[in-house]
């Protein structure tokens, strides 16, 4: 990590926790999208936080459902 | 069937704002007087590009090896073309032994590429919005204008 040169070298330290990068990605997307859709600036950052939370919860839900299907349902279907 | 459109409904396309919005994300909205909205867009898109280049390195943009991704990324404008130029100039020509630590592998490369692709696609949405953006309709003013059009 000490020898890492930002931007020139990829951040390989994130390989094992890559899914945490979902958080800044969702935040950035929400900032742009709510800037287009929000009608009042007073509620802007609250809307960004809500949208970020909704997307993260949605993706985590899909991941749990897929995990359940792959880890439990498919092995059950394969049993003779 | 009668034509229900009035002259007020006609859409005037602001090509200058579209070009400015591509040159620097958010600048299109700033140019039509929506400064706060434009700077928020600029911050959001550049944040995504910054994160992508940080996570994946400048190898996250490569028009030769990731051509389809580049189509999505290039909507961010010259900043992405500049990253690609740096990649093609400094990393791509190196022998494999030299660039082994400079090229992103697995998740680092995937996430870096995805970050910048999402930035490009979001800026594409922004450019679609700026097509019909009215001058000076920043946050509160846009909602008032929408109410006026609805009534």
Q: Give the number of helices of chain A.
A: 2
Number of strands of chain A: 0
Q: Based on helices, strands and strand pairing, what is the structural class of chain B? A: mainly alpha
> Biggest interface in this structure?
A-B, 27 and 45 residues
Task: Report the C-alpha radius of gyration of chain A, rounded.
Answer: 19 Å
Main beta-sheet strand count, sense and barrel state of chain A: none
The residue ranges of chain B in which pLDDT falls below 50 over 5 or more consecutive positions are: 1-6
Tally of DSSP helical segments of chain B: 8
Distance from first to last alpha carbon of chain B: 22 Å
Shape of chain A: flat
Query: Could you name the ranges of chain A where pLDDT drops below 50 across 5 or more consecutive residues?
Result: none
**What's the helical proportion of residues of chain B?**
55-70%
Characterize the main sheet of chain B. none
What percentage of amino acids of chain B are in beta strands? under 5%
List its salient traits:
heterodimer; A: 80 residues; mainly alpha; B: 151 residues; 66% helix; disordered N terminus
């Amino acid at each position: 990590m000490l020898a890492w040169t930002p931007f020139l070298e990829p951040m390989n330290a994130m390989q094992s926790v890559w899914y945490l990068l979902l958080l800044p990605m969702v935040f950035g997307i929400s900032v742009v999208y709510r800037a287009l859709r929000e009608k009042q600036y007073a509620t802007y950052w609250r809307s960004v936080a809500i949208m970020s939370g909704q997307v993260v919860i949605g993706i985590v839900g899909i991941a749990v459902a897929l995990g359940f299907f792959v880890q439990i349902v498919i092995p059950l279907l394969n049993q003779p | 069937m009668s034509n229900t459109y009035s002259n007020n409904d006609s859409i005037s396309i602001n090509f200058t704002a579209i070009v400015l919005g591509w040159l620097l994300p958010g600048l299109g909205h700033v140019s039509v007087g929506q400064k706060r909205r434009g700077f928020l867009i600029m911050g959001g898109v550049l944040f995504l590009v910054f994160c992508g280049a940080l996570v994946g390195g400048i190898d996250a943009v490569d028009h030769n090896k990731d051509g389809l991704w580049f189509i999505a990324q290039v909507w961010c404008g010259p900043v992405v073309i500049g990253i690609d130029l740096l990649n093609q100039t400094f990393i791509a020509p190196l022998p494999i032994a030299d660039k082994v630590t400079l090229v992103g592998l697995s998740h680092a490369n995937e996430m870096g590429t995805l970050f910048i692709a999402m930035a490009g696609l979001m800026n594409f949405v922004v450019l679609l919005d700026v097509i019909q953006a009215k001058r000076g309709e920043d946050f509160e003013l846009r909602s008032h204008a929408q109410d006026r059009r609805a009534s």
